[in-house]
Amino acid sequence: MNKNKDLDLKETFALAVKNYTENNIKIATDLFNQVLKIDPNHSATLNNLGILYADLGKNQKAKSCYEKAIAINPNFADAYYNLSNIFIKLNKSQKAIDCCEKVITINPNFAEAHNNLGALFENSGVIHKAKNYYEKAIQINPNFVEAHSNLISTLVNQGKFEDAETCYQKAIALIPNYNNNDIKFNSDNLRKLSRLDKNIRLNPNIEKALVDNGKNLSSTNLHSLSPSPLEYEEFYREGMGTENVGSFLRALVQMVRPNRILEIGAGYTTPFLLEALINNKRVFHDGNLREAYFKNYNYTPKLVVIDDMSLEDLKKKPGMNNLTSSKYIDFIEGKFEDKADFLLKKYGNFDFVWFDCGGPQEYKTFIDQYWNICSGYIFFHFTYTDGSPNAFHKVILDNVKGKPVIFDIVEPHKKRQGSITMVNKNSYI
User: Fold this and answer.
1) DSSP string computed for 68-102
2) Which of 2, 207, 253, 311 is the most buried (most CB within 10 A)?
3) What are the residue boundaries of the structural domains of the chain, listed by start?
4) Residue 100 pLDDT more than 50?
């Protein structure tokens, strides 16, 4: 390449970068392509053009650019990292892991690659590796907000609330002008979680401890502590009771770790229940997280949902499309009546039930037909109106078999969306 061409290339490249940073995408694209006409092997241009295409959502074009850049320069760490992000978008986790591992082989101090590896291993359930990579990213860059957030969320999901609070305090000490919103929850919530975790383990009144813990967990917006594989924000509607009931159920499922959940009446609670099961499965998958007495326990969770709405109609609802493709959930179309025998043969007993369907007669029918296939906890919705027990509540008291422990939960606003009655079939009075 002669000097004039070299000068022209540098000037064109610099101008392309300038236009890209100023969001003049069309001009930047044309200029990057001009550079490639001068030098088709200009790896920096291919990498930048890949970034541009990725921003536009043109993942295949971005992937092609990164791969060409790497072919020209096999030690191009930035290109490998950018390629890993494309593989993440394409749900090719192993290829993304391979790219990030290549990055840190080339440059061990590439903090973003360590953070990516942490997220990838966390999503695959290998939590101890995720934690190590987040910690390494923070060691390299103490001001790396995303890595702090990911580490704290991981510790919370493990139930290591005191450790999470310690990490939080380190983060706010290290990062100037730190915003609590950057990690989705604050120190007060972490202290609350820590205290409640100890309480549930020590309190002999397990029923009250269970309820108190679940209510307080839900009040900390636990649904937002970690990136969700589900798109269920549509179901989290402030003022509708969703913000209380959905998060409450999620917290309870993560505490009692049921094997089989039955939900009668699909709705805003479905995504919360499913995500809790997915999180539970991750814990059991990772031997470092499992308690010793669970080592040989085959945890195979399943959420079974019965609703008379068609599956196709459910898929049309915001956030529900992802639900229908999960291996942890089965949808059964139609009314719930007369399905108990079928469910027992296919799934066995259910150790956690959420019933939210119809009127008092449907509540009675459920108790009559399903009582013998339910074990553990049954939660009935809409059992209070304006702070007082209603007809739904009376049906439960009049029809449950024997004298199981029954516990009422009424949210302070005393509206029906926030009232639940819990029946524990494992405990009798």
Assistant:
1) HHHHH-TT-HHHHHHHHHHHHHTT-HHHHHHHHHH
2) 253
3) 3-187, 227-428
4) yes
The CATH code of domain 3-187 reads: 1.25.40.10
DSSP string, 161-228: HHHHHHHHHHHHHHSTT--GGGGTS-HHHHHHHHHHHHHHHH-S-HHHHHHHHHHHHHHTTGGGSS--
- In the structure, how many helices (H) and strands (E) does the chain have? 19, 9
**345-363 pLDDT tens trace:** 999 999 999 999 889 999 9
Would the pLDDT of 67 be above 80? Answer: yes
Strand partners, 332: 306
Q: Which CATH number fits domain 227-428: 3.40.30.10, 3.40.50.150, 1.20.200.10, 3.40.1180.10?
A: 3.40.50.150
- pLDDT above 90 covers what percent of the chain? 32
Q: Would you call 292 exposed, middle or buried from its count of C-beta atoms within 10 A (0-12, 13-18, 19+)?
A: exposed
Residues 6+ apart with CB under 8 A from 200: 206, 209, 210, 213, 255
Highest mean pLDDT among 64-73, 84-93, 255-264, 315-324: 64-73
The enclosing H or E element of 38 equals: helix 25-38
Q: CA quadruple 29, 30, 33, 34: dihedral positive or negative?
A: negative
Measure the CA–CA gap between 262 and 352, rounded to whole angstroms.
Answer: 6
CA distance 274 to 253: 9
Task: Return d(Cα 40, Cα 259) in angstroms, integer.
Answer: 57
Instruction: State the Cα–Cα distance between residues 304 and 331, nearest whole angstrom.
Output: 6
Residues in the chain: 429
